[in-house]
Amino acid sequence: MWGDGDAGQLGLGNLDNKKQIAINNSFPPIKQVSAGSNHTTVVTMTGGVYTWGHCANGRLGIGDTERVGIPDHQKFFFPVPSCLSTLETIRQISCGTDHTLAIGLSGLWVWGSGAGGKLGLGDNLDRTSPVLIPVMKAKSIMQVSAGYWHSMAGGT
After folding, report:
1. φ, ψ for residue 112 (rounded to 5)?
2. How many structural domains is the chain composed of?
C-alpha cells in the first residue's frame, strides 16, 4: 500500500501518508483488493472480507459510523483492518467512492452510501452493514463494479 493515508485507508494503523510501498503482513493470503475514495476492502483466499478507512455513510460495512473515545478529528477513521465476520464467503468485491459491493454465495451484498439509489435497494438510504439485494438473491453473478454514482453487476 502507498499514497494518501489521512483517513486510515492504507490500513497500517495510523493516518500517515506513504510515498513508498509499505507492506502489511498481518493478513491471510489475499485474493482481491479494491480501493474506494477513502476506504479499502480485501477478500482473502478463503472468502473472508477485511475493510478499513473512512467510515462515513457506512462504507466499511462494520455497523459503526464513528469510533468512541477517539479525538473528534479522528473518530470517523478506522486505520486498522476489521474483519466482516458476519458476512458469508465472498468471491469478488468492488469499492465505489462511498459504497461497496460484494458477490457472495447467496447473491449480491451492498453497503455504504445509498445516495442516488446506487445500492440497488429502491431507496437512497445508507446501510452501515452488508445487505443482500432481494432481486439479486440466488442469481449467478460473475462480476460487480461500483462507480461514483452508480453500480453494475453482470452474470449469466
Report:
1. 110, -150
2. 1
